[in-house]
Structure formats: structure tokens, C-alpha cells
Amino acid sequence: MKKIGLTTLLCTTLTWAALAAAPLQAAEVVVYSARNEQLIKPLFDAYTKETGVKINFITDKEGPLMQRLKAEGKNTPADMLITVDAGNLWQAAQEGLLKPVNSGVLKKNIPAHLSDPKNQWFGLSVRARTLFYNTQKIKAADLDSYEDLADPKWKGRLCLRTSKKVYNQSLVATLIAEHGVEKAEQIVRGWVANLATAPFPDDTKMLEAVAAGQCDVGIANTYYYGRLMEKSPELPLAIFWANQKSNGVHVNVSGAGITQYAKHEKEAVKLLEWLSSDKAQNLFADVNMEFPANPQIKPDATVAAWGSFKSNNMNIAKAGELQIEAVKLMDRAGYK
Ligand code: FE
């Protein structure tokens, strides 16, 4: 809540003359963000510097932010919701918390498969969820795809993060979309049978286990690998782009939508368009070693050094649509 009070403060300190010259109502956007403060504040500062528009924001986990939007209803001060994972954005749209935005700028800047088909949210950065392996134990040539990790040859050699994380729910949702429930369940059962140890609470711990040789291979988002290697470049850990011979690497987004009851809708749409533009895309993606969602923009040098890859261009709204199905499937398959 701490930053919401800013407008009130400004109103009481500005003179009447200043108020007449610059209507405060128009020069503000209120954002609820599940993306960390350190990842979004530099962007908002740059936007304010460029346009003079103030951005008041709060950060929290997506659950509490969506609860809050629901509870506030028409009275919400929030104009924009930023979250990670399309599953969460889909959920927010499903609950009627977002409104469609018809913007030529957003359509031009953000590929269709990274946005809601009904234009209620737009991906702003891409996170790739792929395979990571211990270079002292196996070679890249040993690896192939998410599906291949279900093969009995990987018995006792696979590490995974918990199925409770939305990232894995989204990954399994895309497997369902591609293969159908039955085949997807076989794959997940295969993963469970191949686990070297119980699933990890986060991607970093999972990657550390691969690096320590507790398992040969695991699945994680690339920016966790980036952070870990920045800290410990000596680790025998490498990236492998999954499914290059088939549908491509599973990608997800960090993205945003305009709230159903936005009080500064026009200004919020302008901010969203700016976030998709060349001016902001590197700022948005690079701070977390993600890929810009706008294909015209190059990723930062560290990220680019991981090499180029084919990504799965299934619309990521599928991750939301099939999320409940995915959770049930992982439960049946004994994936904890
Ligand atoms: Fe993450």
C-alpha cells in the first residue's frame, strides 16, 4: 500500500495554479504488480522521466493481488495488473478482472501467440523453460525433448521442481494440448518413475542438484540458470534447447493487462504500449535475463550467448485453459 498515498500527498502540496495547468487525474497510472519491485521500478522511473506520468504501484504475489482486485471491484484504484506466467494472466481474465485492449501498437509489437486471443493481456517478456544437464555426466547429444525424459534410460537421473509451481502446470498443459491427456499422463508418469530424488521447491535448488551430480538432467527457466552461472561460473551445468526436432522449447511470459475498472484507462494503455516498444523491451527483459517479447528487440549479451532456438508457438493462453486438467493429471501421476 505504501506508494498509493502519493497522489494525495501531491494534491495537498501543489498550488492551485499548478493544478490548473496540469490536471493530476490524467497524469497518473496505478499498477498492481506480481513482478518484483526491483524488476519494474527502473521501467516506471524511465517512463515517468520520459512522459511526466506518475506511476503508483504495489507489488505482491499474484494470488493476493487478484483477491484484492476482486474485493475492490468497481472501486479499485488499479489500472494495470502485471503478473508472471500466462496461467495467472488467463486466470485474471477468466475472473473478469481485465478488459480487452484494441491497440495497433500492441498487435504490431507482441506476437499473437504471446497474447490473449481476446486481447485482455499481452506478454512483455519471454521465459524459456528447457533442459539443463551436468556436463561431467552427459553430453548434449544424449538429450532430445521433454517427452524423451520419460524414457526408462533416464531412470534415477532426472530432477524436477514441484508440480505445485505454475511453471510446471503450464508446461504439462502444453503437453496435454499437443498429445492429449492420455499420452501426456504417460509422459509425466515416466518423469516420476525417473526421478533421482523428490521434487525441489524451486528451480535454483533443482539446478544446484544437477550441478552437484545428484541427477544428470532437469527442467528449469533459463533466467535461474543465468543467475546461478553469474554467481558460480565454474559449475558443470549447460543449457539444452528442448524439442528442436519437434515443436520447440516451451515458453511462457511475464505480461500485463488493463483492469476492468481502470480509472486511467487511456494512460494505462499508453504505458502498456510503451512497455512493448523498443524503448522499454530491453529494460523489461534484461533485468531478469529474459527474452524480449517484441521480436524486433535483441536479448542482452549474456542471454544471446545461450544461442538461438526454436520456441513453441502454441498460443500460451492454452496454459491457462488446461491448467486444472494439468494439475489433476500430475496428481494422478504421483508428481508431487
Ligand atoms: Fe521465476
Secondary structure elements and their pairing?
Blueprint: H1 6-13, H2 16-21, E1 28-33, H3 37-51, E2 54-59, H4 62-72, E3 80-84, H5 86-94, E4 98-99, H6 104-109, E5 122-134, E6 158-159, H7 166-179, H8 181-194, H9 203-211, E7 217-221, H10 222-231, E8 237-240, E9 250-259, H11 265-275, H12 278-286, E10 291-292, H13 301-304, H14 317-321, H15 323-332
This protein binds fe (iii) ion (FE).
Distance between the termini: 35 Å
Number of strands: 10
Tell me the radius of gyration.
Answer: 21 Å
Helix/strand-derived category reads alpha/beta
Task: Name the hetero compounds present.
Answer: fe (iii) ion
- Beta-strand percentage range: 15-25%
The run of helices and strands is: HHEHEHEHEHEEHHHEHEEHHEHHH
The unreliable regions are: 1-24
- Sketch the major β-sheet: 10 strands, mixed
Tally of helical segments: 15
Q: Helix content range of the residues, please?
A: 40-55%
Average residue-wise pLDDT = 93
The 3D shape can be described as: globular
Written description of the protein model:
The protein is of the alpha/beta class. The protein contains 15 helices and 10 strands. Strands 1, 2, 3, 4, 5, 6, 7, 8, 9 and 10 form a 10-stranded mixed beta sheet that branches. Helix 8 crosses helix 15. The protein is globular, with a radius of gyration of 21 Å. Bound molecules: fe (iii) ion.
Provide keyphrases for this structure.
about 325 residues, 10 strands, disordered N terminus, globular, 10-stranded mixed beta sheet, binds fe (iii) ion, alpha/beta, about 15% strand
